[in-house]
């Protein structure tokens, strides 16, 4: 085993997907997850040598946004990332008016009728995570492909990033998570579990603040912003605006943390659509270097 989870290929993915239903019906599934993962290992042939393997520093960057997730949630997210199209479909399904009001058993029953893998169905209880994965689908796809091809390497990367966060002081036990070191097949691994198995907390953090700089750029995806003297990454946050509201002791303005809000309040200079990002960065670099910008473009 490498890291906290065993090597697994598509042949064993279905088994893990079944136990990942803990997000919809938490409880005993947490206790059974590790044994189910061990069973999956026995069904998986070793991967063939491949010259296109992703190097370690790139894997560190790829897993950084989720490496501090509790182990069961991490396993569920990794498996779900191998179904990127279904994640997008689930997100579209969740935002329909008739589905927004579904909770608990009603939600589980409704999503079970959809033709998706059980690992995707179980993500319905975590709509914010689904939206994040669907919005940044290229990173999600890259993560899923890496997990399918290099499961052991991916879990090693998770351990390296947890070690960085622990050394930096941004990963430690609190009222939401338990962080412990365990010996697994002769290796010292960092294990993260929910403090309350019945409650799923989703960590929210910026990798730069959680780990510091690494040898490869972090994925260019959305991370929690800094606001009101509170940073959801310096001390890892778990509930976004609600945590900040409790810290500040006051109501937050409407639209808090949206790109439009940050732009209106001077925290951003410009909001750029993903499809225009490359061109905008190019033009900004030209502007800062004193070169003439392309016609029709002005600096923010």
Give a quick summary of the entry.
With 300 residues, the protein is mostly helical.
Determine the structural class based on helices, strands and strand pairing. mainly alpha
Distance between the termini: 51 Å
How many domains? The number is 2
Percent of residues in helices comes to: 40-55%
Number of strands: 4
- Main sheet: which strands, in order across? 1-2
Describe the structure.
The protein is mainly α. The protein has two domains: 10-194, no CATH class; 270-300, no CATH class. It is built from 15 helices and four strands. It has a two-stranded antiparallel sheet. The N and C termini lie far apart (51 Å).
Quickly list its features.
about 300 residues, mainly alpha, 2 domains, two-stranded antiparallel sheet, two-stranded antiparallel ribbon, 15 helices, disordered N terminus
Write the layout of secondary structure elements.
Blueprint: H1 10-19, H2 28-42, H3 56-63, H4 71-80, H5 84-94, H6 97-100, H7 104-112, H8 118-122, H9 127-135, H10 137-149, H11 151-168, E1 177-184, E2 187-194, H12 207-211, E3 226-227, E4 230-231, H13 241-248, H14 259-264, H15 277-288
Antiparallel strand pairs: 1-2, 3-4
Helix pairs in contact: 1-2, 3-11, 5-9, 10-11
């Amino acid at each position: 085993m490498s890291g906290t989870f065993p090597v697994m290929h598509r042949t064993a993915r279905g088994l893990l997907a079944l136990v990942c239903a803990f997000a919809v019906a938490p409880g005993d599934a947490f206790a059974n997850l590790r044994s189910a993962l061990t069973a999956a290992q026995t069904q998986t042939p070793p991967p063939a040598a491949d010259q296109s393997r992703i190097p370690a520093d790139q894997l560190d960057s790829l897993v950084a946004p989720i490496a501090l997730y509790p182990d069961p949630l991490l396993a569920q997210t990794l498996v779900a990332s191998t179904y990127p199209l279904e994640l997008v479909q689930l997100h579209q399904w969740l935002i329909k008016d008739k589905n927004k009001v579904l909770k608990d058993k009603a939600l589980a029953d409704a999503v079970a009728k959809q033709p998706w893998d059980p690992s995707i169905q179980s993500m319905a209880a975590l709509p914010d995570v689904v939206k994040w994965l669907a919005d940044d689908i290229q990173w999600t796809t890259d993560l899923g492909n890496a997990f399918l091809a290099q499961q052991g390497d991916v879990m090693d990367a998770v351990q390296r990033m947890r070690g960085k966060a622990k050394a930096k002081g941004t990963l430690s036990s609190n009222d939401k998570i338990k962080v412990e070191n365990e010996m697994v097949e002769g290796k010292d691994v960092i294990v993260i579990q929910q403090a309350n198995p019945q409650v799923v907390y989703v960590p929210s953090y910026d990798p730069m603040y959680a780990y510091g700089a690494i040898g490869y750029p972090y994925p260019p995806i959305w991370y929690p912003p800094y606001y009101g003297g509170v940073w959801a990454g310096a001390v890892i946050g778990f509930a976004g605006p609600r945590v900040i509201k409790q810290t500040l002791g006051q109501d937050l303005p409407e639209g808090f943390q949206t790109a439009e809000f940050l732009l209106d309040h001077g925290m951003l200079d410009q909001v750029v659509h993903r499809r225009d990002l490359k061109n905008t960065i190019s033009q900004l670099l030209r502007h800062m270097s004193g070169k003439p910008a392309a016609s029709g473009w002005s600096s923010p």
